[in-house]
Amino acid sequence: MTRPGFVLEVDDRTPPIVVHEGEGFRLENFPLGTRVVYPPESLPSVPDVDGAIRDALLNPVDSDPLPERLFAGMRLTIAFDDLSLPLPPMRAPDIRQRIIEQVLTMAADAGVDDVHIVAANALHRRMTPAELKHIVGERVFRSFHPQGLLYNHDAEDRDNLLHIGLTDKGEDVEINRRAAESDLLVYVNVNLVAMDGGHKSVPIGLASYKSLKHHHNSQTMVRSHSFMDHTKSHLHHSAWRMGRLLKEHLNIFQIETTLDNNVFPAPYEFLMKREWEWSVKDQASMLAMRRGLAVAPKRMRHKMFHDLRAPYGLTGIHAGDTEAVHERTIAAVHRQQMVEVQGQSDVLVMGVPFLGPYNVNSTMNPILATCMGLGYYFNSYRNQPVVRRGGAVILYHPLEPDFSQLHHPSYVDFYEEILAESTDPAVIEEKYEQQFATDPWYIHLYRTSHAYHGVHPFYMWYWAAHAMDHVDDVIWVGGNRKVAQRLGFRAASTLADALEMASGTVGTSPSITYLHNPPHLIADVH
Amino acid sequence: MGSFLKDGVADVRTVAKGWRWGRRSMVPRSAEAFVPPARTTVFPTDWSRRRPARYAREVAQKGALEPLMRSQVRRRVEGLDVLARIDGPVIFAANHASHLDTPLILLSLPDEWRRRTAVAAAADYFFDTWWRAVGSAIVFNTFPIDRRGGSMATTPGEVLGEGWSLVIFPEGTRSKDGWVGRFQLGAAYLAVQHGVPVVPVAHRGTFAAMPRGQGWPSPGRRQLTVRFGEPLHPGEGEAARDFAPRIKDAVSALLDEDRSTWWEARRRAASGATPDPGGPAIAEWRRVWEQTEPVGVDPTAAPLRPWRR
Question: Which CATH architecture has domain A6-41+337-525?
């Protein structure tokens, strides 16, 4: 039986609790009375995945069955979520592979010849052939990649973008031309968290900077409460307007999937267990891992974590009309991740793990760590933030100034030049975004190498804008002091020090809530 | 290297303390509602009543347990002569106040009885992990019984049928304050079903020496007393429901006898004035206070020895 998530109150019986910090974790003794939010255990996964996919394609929601929408001579484009989902990457076979294979089987049966498969990576980096192959599988890769029919979306290829029009709020809708001119666009999504999917798939995944800038900006993000709740997110409101406009111009068949909470494979399962239920084996694994991490060189530590492939199970698949499908998807995500929390607290504690959406097979630099902590984890709430306005956030991460020159070249300049000037999202947006977004060298690297777009670090900073606006103090436990200072935050070596430092903001006996994340959770704060 | 070892030791210490190594793990109070229902593990214990395990048990009990008990507590055993008058198997029904009860009763028995006596132990407590199950089965010859009434690999009836005597604590759990709780019907039911006599056993002092929550006897070699009573035979057609109170009365009378004398206890029993073993209805602390009082042993009642020590 799946146990629901719950809020633990730390008492004298509570063992130390795991807190992730980059490529490692620590055991933390939280003050008595600290609330610890545990996500629900994994829901039962679908036993017959291929049967469930077939069923979803043949019995879609508010749409004709997929085979009826396929015909000989048509232009079919299949778009799919890129490697930023799921986290960690899924153990092969990836769910997208299994779906795309069935869609292609139906297309072959219908005699469709003109098929393109496009990774909806927006301004994310181009995926390598190996990364594409991991997602779509060997069969699809071999059939399409050598012919140039399986490729990454290029948001800077002016010839292959189509301006569809303006929304009623004057927002440009510009997406991949091939997708826009297809008779049918099939979108294959992995809805890891509540933010994903719906109209965020096509209007954002296949868009250009011109279109993205309307919602990827500091004002929108500050007003999105939170971006994990599409009904209250200005980011999503904008995407929904764009999606509705797109729906008038092209046929979209949306396929959304939801996953369980099986994030860590053996022998790391103990990281998903409730600590007081750790067996002797779990305790031994933890001790061995801690010692291993202590002696392992940085490169080996990195490899150890980044080679993890999550044994995710499928909890649901829905296909058909985007909005109708997404409604069902969100319900499934909430079932898996929602935890009810009573009231806000003065201090919110979060451990930033080794992986976020933008450092798969790469390095989590300080800007990405900020985005992960103050962006994704902070926003993992419904109704109201877990921490009160004017409270403090304590994050765990080493904050080493390590950058991948290959994947994050613009981040280096953003960190060295822009953050040295200002850390205010609105100010840096106003003064510097255009310069980075249109820099020819960054565009060149984005298009030909494997670099994130020049504007991407700005988006990461905007992602954290709501948290920065909401809380008065951000302290990184175990963080590099110089780096924290550059980011506009402070660093402490222990939780006790961090609480001491935060006492100026929240007093000497604040209420504390720790989000035990990962696995993923959404705090429904009343 | 130095810091590696130092941090490793610190980690082990943290885990040993946090996860209560050597003690039973605990669930935070706010998480108790989310503890999954314990799975009924069917743990076979037939092997523990076969010859190799019996040899191992003899070594464990005589070579380790007996000296250990002797070093930690003082014991006085009375009433063993009743065993000379009956043949096994029997059911020893005793009050239950401490983990010391089982070794106390087993080690008080004459060797030929001890070697043929098994102990019914709560499956959810003693058989929750393999190492606890194996350990208790080897040392104490325990077999699991389900306190919630589920079925087990071995039933007490089968063990009785094989000619083993049983130690059963009819209260089903250790007393929280040292006084005797409600007797369940299990022992009476078994006796009626299999037509075996019940030997009432009463002991005092184990609660004072090692109450619930304590993992080792208190220092100072506390005095324990154990007293075996006249065997009770279920009457012809007597129901377990009627037999159970007789067992409890016998244990109560033995406790009374242990506090006073056989004659006084008999007279009180005859007039129905045996003190309630459940204790007086007074404040909790006073109940505990009374039970933690050291068991006084009348020096004149001490075993007579030919030589003064």
Answer: Alpha-Beta Complex (3.90)
